[in-house]
Fold this sequence. Notes:
18 helices
Amino acid sequence: xxxxxxxxxxxxxxxxxxxxxxxxxxxxxxxxxxxxxxxxxxxxxxxxxxxxxxxxxxxxxxxxxxxxxxxxxxxxxxxxxxxxxxxxxxxxxxxxxxxxxxxxxxxxxxxxxxxxxxxxxxxxxxxxxxxxxxxxxxxxxxxxxxxxxxxxxxxxxxxxxxxxxxxxxxxxxxxxxxxxxxxxxxxxxxxxxxxxxxxxxxxxxxxxxxxxxxxxxxxxxxxxxxxxxxxxxxxxxxxxxxxxxxxxxxxxxxxxxxxxxxxxxxxxxxxxxxxxxxxxxxxxxxxxxxxxxxxxxxxxxxxxxxxxxxxxxxxxxxxxxxxxxxxxxxxxxxxxxxxxxxxxxxxxxxxxxxxxxxxxxxxxxxxxxxxxxxxxxxxxxxxxxxxxxxxxxxxxxxxxxxxxxxxxxxxxxxx
Length: 415
């Protein structure tokens, strides 16, 4: 974010989003990757863990990342406007930020945790600048082809895999799809052979984990871009549109926020519940998880993301106390730092070079770690920003992007 006037509602909702990202990611921090989408990976789930997975699939997974993406789009406009107001070249300011963000993302992926989204955001940011001057309507229209691609590619693959599984695919295509189905079952299915291997890997040394990321997983950042950039671009464009429509600045009346939240949840929740039941009835077969998570849920995830955004803004404006808003806004102003520090803390708790809890904590109990980290974000961000202009990593990013050290202590700027 920029200096100058802050928009407290935007900072506060970003604070909620960075906390929500942890609720989405906690399983991937603490359990082998198949467990992220499949509650039966590693063994039959208990009722409480199954309920947790169900809740997460319907209300959390993709929605919190979606909200973060909306806010990235909105923040991009703020950064560009700030550069113009300060007499700096907006393109230079934006692309310098994206260059350093990409490097931060790659460092995060290779050195700390494989679930990085910063590199993806930086790549999307290269395109996002081109849309900065469009109207609300134009931004929404431009988001549609991105979403169509995001849905169309995995949906087409899901149909072909389903045909291969049913034996109805033409012979010339069947062999390739059968191999893809075999690999998908190995990666995501309930009896995946990689589960125990991942536990052994992440309970090992830092050197062995680093070697895995820089070896077998070296190309994954680009793979993730190819998979998720279309949906992410669509969400960022919607974020730009919502910012320009004053929704994210808190300028709508309460009734309008209430209506948007209700409509989005009422439309999105029933299909998402149906998709969760579809996976359960399919015995968490890899093909059902892929179809539900990667293709069929996308339009409803997007709707619920907007619904969450409207609901949180409603609560910030109508229910939250001044102190709560200030705490959330501080966590949001330090979202970059809080996001990366969360990765350091969680990997240290769960990986072998730290406390070594990887694979030993149940899905539901993992949320106790979320609560602890959320409390830390809310407790430390506000006191820090009372003494300093920026979070420590926000300051580093800003200094690198501008090519000179920025004032850090408030006294340094005469405050």
